[in-house]
Amino acid sequence: MPFIYDNLIASVVGATVLLILASIQMRATGEQVAQTARNTALSQTTSLATWLEEDLEAMGRNREAGEVVFKNISRTGNEASPTGEVLTSLTFRYEDDGGDSTTVTYEVRSSENRTVAGEERPIYTLDRQQNGSVSGGASTVLGYFDLHFIDGNAQRVTDPANNRGEIQALQLYFSVVPSFESDRMILDEVRRMVVVPYTPAQ
């Protein structure tokens, strides 16, 4: 009889140890998944900011004074955005030093609704077209995306299409949301604000 009890106790202890080890492993896996999502969002934010700066600094490059540099600006309301809006469309042009003209179009589309920081919100993707062909953009999950034209006093230019002479800089707001959710996620959203000079004004 003592032998049976000893085996039973050993089995219970062994099962308990296995459950503890499994719990620790699951927790470690969950934390690793959350860390991967966080690092991916941070990396995407840096990459997106870099090529957007390069793109927007080119706006109007080598264009003649008085030429149309940008057009088709449209927005929709979004309370999560620091501007209260999300850019939905923008087209702009520039020329390289060899005289070749490039037209870039941004289309920002709502792709789904997600819970971010406890609040259900629309999530966006950015489609970038260059001379009519898709070129970059859409892989990043955006919480918001908005662009404003700024004057020499760091104020937004109202009706920029008809007040191009007042524009001195471009101010871009965007956020990147991790591509998947985890209950151990510390970072819900990576926010970034970028300011670049408006090339025709330089």
Structure description:
This protein has 202 residues and is of the alpha+beta class. The protein has one domain. Helix content is 28%, strand content 37%. The chain has one helix and eight strands; from the N terminus they run H-E-E-E-E-E-E-E-E. The chain has one helix spanning 2-58; strands at residues 70-77, 85-95, 101-116, 119-130, 133-134, 142-150, 169-176, 190-197. The strands form two sheets. Strands 1-2-3-4-5 form a five-stranded antiparallel β-sheet, with no helix packed on it. Strand 2 (85-95) and strand 3 form a beta hairpin. The radius of gyration is 25 Å and the shape is elongated. The relative contact order is 0.17.
Task: Give descriptors for this structure.
202 residues; alpha+beta; five-stranded antiparallel sheet; elongated
Brief rundown of the structure:
The chain has one helix at 2-58; strands at residues 70-77, 85-95, 101-116, 119-130, 133-134, 142-150, 169-176, 190-197. With 202 residues, the chain is α+β, with helices and mostly antiparallel strands.
